[in-house]
Protein 1
Amino acid sequence: MQLLSVNIGRPRANPWKSSSETGIDKRPVEGPVAVTVPGPKGAGEVGLAGDRVYDVKHHGGVDQAVYAYAREDLDGWEPELGRELGNGVFGENLTTAGLDVNGALIGERWRIGTGGVVLEVSCPRVPCSTFQGWLEREGWIKRFTEAALPGAYLRVVSPGEIRAGDPIGIAYRPDHAVTVALTFRAMTREPDLLPLLAGVEALPEEIRETARRRLGA
């Protein structure tokens, strides 16, 4: 398992949403990138030096510090989208190889490189109008949701530096079976799955609260 690229956003105008700018245009960078624990959601902070978010209500903060997507899943989308998809094009900070990102367990921890960086899987990405507009694909939100290949948001457990080519290892796996993909399905098209999320402590509190309401707790 390997980190193929570390991708940092270039601010650009956002005609697809109320926020004036977006950081979805992420490009691979060379050399080491510092990984730190960001502040809470609302400040635009994320976990990688040089990057930030602009829709601060919905993105950024501790539970969405870093976003990962698998190269294998990008490759799978290329025939349908009819073009090559470079690393970072889905707005991901980390493009991985050999790692089942959507099959990762909530609370699973990844050790990246040799600098002590540990990231924890927190929740799936939910598509928005900026994502659809960026890809210039009508109906993309619906199609992405149907596929249930959302990629994973990660928390920073141990900061440090990472770079393209770093190995990725699984440092910890929890003893439940709730994956990134299952969580996404529960949050979108299959609400009957929400009760499975209620006891998963590594999920963000707002997702667990939704699951508890489903249970009537």
Protein 2
Amino acid sequence: MTPDCQPPHLTDANQPDGNHLRTALALAAAGIPVLPLRAGKVPFGNCPACKGNACGGRPNMKTPGPCQCSRPCHGWAAASTDADTLRSAARASAWRDAAAVAYHPGGAGLTVVDLDDADAITWARTVLPATRTVRTTRGEHWLYRGVMPSANSVRPGVDIKSTMSYARWLGPGTGTLAVLPDVVRALVVKVPSPVRPVTAPMPGGGGACRHRTPTYLERGITMAEQTINAASSGVHTTVYRTFLAVLSAHGRCGCLTEAHMARLFAAAQAKGESVRHCTDAWTNARTRLGV
């Protein structure tokens, strides 16, 4: 979707039966992946076997249930910009029964900050840069240009909807679309558990730990952040090797703190790594080193 794409004739997805498909096709033509929603904001599957989630697929996950779908068909993965897919016979009953239209923000290059109540809106107006806003039943959606991991309850009344998520289409909104700011990205950065100190003899018979020199440790963490930030490919491997190097140099004497780990995890997440991938890489590096 182009940065300020606003299909001007679209206002509200809660239209009479028969109009949801028309809305969906207009959004798809603008590059916004769309899908129908049942009552209760629950998505349909892409094939008859998945109707009513009968196959056991998990609505918010990419992986379908035991059905033999040719492609993922649940939740956000059901969103499409292909007009033939949207008009297909397999989708016809879904659009007839649809209660609303949803879209995949990440697939459109967007992030939605979902504000559920007045307190959340007040917080956003105080902390977040102004951007395009859409009114919802209980609050507002603030839209930014850029993608990031999705997360629920990042603070009271605030959810993030971007990659691997869907949001209800409630109209194009008002205001100018702003670039996704770091303050929003930081909302999904979780502070990892601290390093478990390991008692081990220091080389040369012990003595004062050189890692406790603030300059030495700070330089090591900064270099690690720079290495991750500079990765243009093989991000998974780069993150793992960087964590391995940090733990090899600083992980045996309890010098690493939660703040150091949070910095490394934040650098990795800024490159697209999930918290789970960061945690796995950290755990694997510790296991390899025996710390």
Protein 3
Amino acid sequence: MFVRKKRNKSGVISIQIIDKSSGKYKLVKTIGSSSDPFEIERLVSKGEEFIKETAGLKEFDFNNFDAIYAQVLTSVTSHKLVGIDLVLGKIFDEIGFNHIEDGLFKDFVLYRLVYPKSKLKTTEYLYRFARKSYSEDEIYRYMDKLYNTQKELVQQISYEHTLKVLPQGIQVVFYDVTTICFETDYEDDLRKTGFSKEGKHQNPQIVLGLLVS
């Protein structure tokens, strides 16, 4: 619907509401008529308000940004991140990890990649952004299950995929490097001051890791 100004032979302008949804012009309502410019503008505004009320249209007051933000935020009941599943989830499947039919395994792997925090923080992140509820105890129980029943399958899938990526063969593999600090001010041949994942750079420490060649 739209507002139309129609002038008659006497110069009087009629303000009308026209509907063209069927392909033909149809008079819905005549708001009024006048030859006074101010009255015509008032009638036009009245016609526009009629269209909004009839069609159920709502407008934002773009002069009041705080009210807009508040209105939008209060109407949001939940939100969910989908890019993790769309991007990393596709890579996860292409590697072959989808053969492990356990939803917790996939959730835990993907969300630890984008949010590498503690297991408790990971459960909070999963609930906040994916609406998936896991307890910390469930995570620990699953890690036992992963080690006891699925470890070899994970290793096999990883190895076979790596061979596809590196057809010339695997020469070096680094796995899970970590640091351990010592509460002492003295260095020796083993313990040296340097990078610490715990932020204790002032303490001598050693770096632990697994190297397969």
Protein 4
Amino acid sequence: MLDVSSARVTHCVVHRVGNRLREEGCEFSQQEVRGTAELHGTLLRHYLTPLAKSGEDFEFYHESDISLNSVKQFSTRILVDVGNFLNVSQNIAKHLYSISTHPSIAEGEFIVILFQDVRIDGASHAALGLYKIEQRETFLDIERSNDSINLIELNGIPVTSIQKGALIVGGDVGVFVKESGSQQTKYWAELFLKARPRQTRKSTSKLAAEFVKQVCSRIDVEAGMSLRRDLVDIFSANETINYRDVEEVSERYLDRNEVSRLTQQLEDHAGFSALSESTVDSALLSRQARSVLRQYPLGDGIGLTIANPKARLDKCSVSKTKNGYRAIIDIELGE
């Protein structure tokens, strides 16, 4: 995890980037933000800390040559020589505009912040934060005049959540990405940053959870209940497992070729290799697949959810009746 306790803001600029499809253009600031200590504190709390603590671990890539990745090259120029900050930030904004061609991409502010003294294992690094603001919020303020106190309505940039953000840490440490709200488009990570999840235990567990979801959607109700019970037993008995273990359990209920095809699809989408040989943290996978493992479909649009983490479905018999379904369920409660 990144240590940002001693980090500070040294440079900040705001540009405005529109939708290229609608020919909204860009507005480039010719000067950096004249930040106060209070503003820098807000940026550190709400724009740096969330990315450092909960940003997804990504890495830059390019189909043919990594040197052609625009954001990687631009960010490196700033991290190596801060004298390039203003001009290169405009180039990054131009690149963002060039890929903003989806009709759902909204015009908004593009904020570039240079942080210093971000620490990893005690070593100090510079880090470049990139943020796109596409939605504003209404808030109230107080206005005093003579003998009255009035409420006034203002419209501004929210700081409670990062709408689209990326933190690029110098020294090729990594890229940390965070998005919130409706994901109508995938332009931020896939097209603008051209970054993909780094192959770690966390990202592998996330893919394994997606694999479990895909398998469960392809088998019938009875097989799905058995598969869920088998997976819960394996996760409970082992701190770590191999992705291949999840495949082998799934092959009891789904054709082996279909299992291999699903894994190949996940590898191709994430850019991972040798997924079957990867190690997965059982507790992490169990949490990421909780919505699938704790929900047991009983019939068309009808299911059972077990919220108690110590409980497991032992047996379940479902039969159709004239007006619906009859289910006999045995639930085991652990210690």
